[in-house]
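Researcher: I've been going back and forth with a colleague about how ABC transporter permease might be arranged in three dimensions. Neither of us has a model we trust, so I'd like an independent prediction. The organism is Streptomyces benahoarensis, in case that matters for your notes. Sequence below.
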Amino acid sequence: MSADLKPAAQPVAAAAKGGRRKLTYPWILLILAVALLAVSGLRALTGTADLTSTGQFGAALSAAVPIGLAGLGGLWSERAGVVNIGLEGMMMLGSFAAGWIGWQHGPWAAAAAGIVGGALGGLVHAVATVTFGVDHIVSGVAINILALGATQYLATLWFGGEGSAAQAAGGNDKQSPPMPDMPTFTVPGLSDWLNSVEAHHWFFVSDLAGILGAAVTNVSWLTLGTVALFVATFYLLWRSSFGLRLRSCGEAPLSAESLGVNVYAYKYAAVLVSGALAGLGGAFLSIGVHFYQDGQTGGRGYIGLATMIFGNWRPGGVAMGAGLFGFMDAMQLRSGGPTVHALLLGLAALLAVLALLRLRAAKRVQATVAAVVAVALVVWYAVADTVPLELVEASPYIATLLVLALFSQRLRPPKAGGRPYRRGQGA
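Model: Here is an independent structure prediction for ABC transporter permease. You can compare it with whatever you and your colleague have in mind.
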């Protein structure tokens, strides 16, 4: 009798311990539909039409690509057990390499150069952490510092040299000469029809048309490539024997070694891919504005790291996080104060829901804090017509901190992440 009861008791025990429901595709679609309804309601209530426009979501998609690529790069590295704080530096190397090659050979060559530049940064990180056992955080920070110094020095040397070809083509010690445009694609007919539906400002329907219009209007081929990379990452890491071996290096490297897995080789491969993806993200930034510029990454490597954590080290979660941060980044660049002002009301609603959930979980202090902040945001929205420019500019970073604070208790990182590994020894 007891043997018969044990299997049935396991799900009950898991539920008693607060086990979470697995997110299936219907649940994901339901969440997306509810989110769109909420944004549609916010747009209708505040009258901020640009909140769901094709231009807004097109800019958000472009802003999400480099962040998503950095986050995806971090996922590859950390799934193999190597913490990669150096994503920002690898993006710098990719951005610089793309600017250097792009003005001479075009945007496709720039993308390839960005991949190589980022991979070189990944190689340095792999040698330091995997071969020599340097602390992963120390190595990552060192790469960020070295990349910043190297790109500034080489930009001065190659782009700003007196009488050089680069300077004659429009370069200087802060930026490369301009490169040609990257080709884009638009679905003829469908794009125009969606734009006409959006112009009617119908509740939900026009908002959905604005989002879909951004996906079929002037989309970079690199954006399509990024989508393909996310899909390929999922199938490689979760649907292949290669991915199983790589993930085992981040969970239990000694056990993987005992089964014949070359842990060093898999860690090297993962960190190289990580650097290449981050470098491609940096190249996207250079290609998007047609040149490399000093300080171009603007902390997006760190935001990419935050998307990886927010996404719980899964490609789908990274994609959603990149979309959120890309939306915030595009919002402050395109619309500024009015849209951020409208989002105060949306943030207040989210905090009110959070307060109810915390209260239901008997966490009264957290519920009270969330409720007080929600009320304060509603009052702020009511008494002010806009928000300070400094808050607008900081909105992507504030969103990063809020998301990490809200989801930090529901994370499950790889068990052996950041731990030194030596063949034949314990992790």
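Researcher: What would you highlight for our discussion?
Model: I'd start with this: Residues 263-289 form the longest helix (27 residues). After that, consider the following. The chain has a mean pLDDT of 85.
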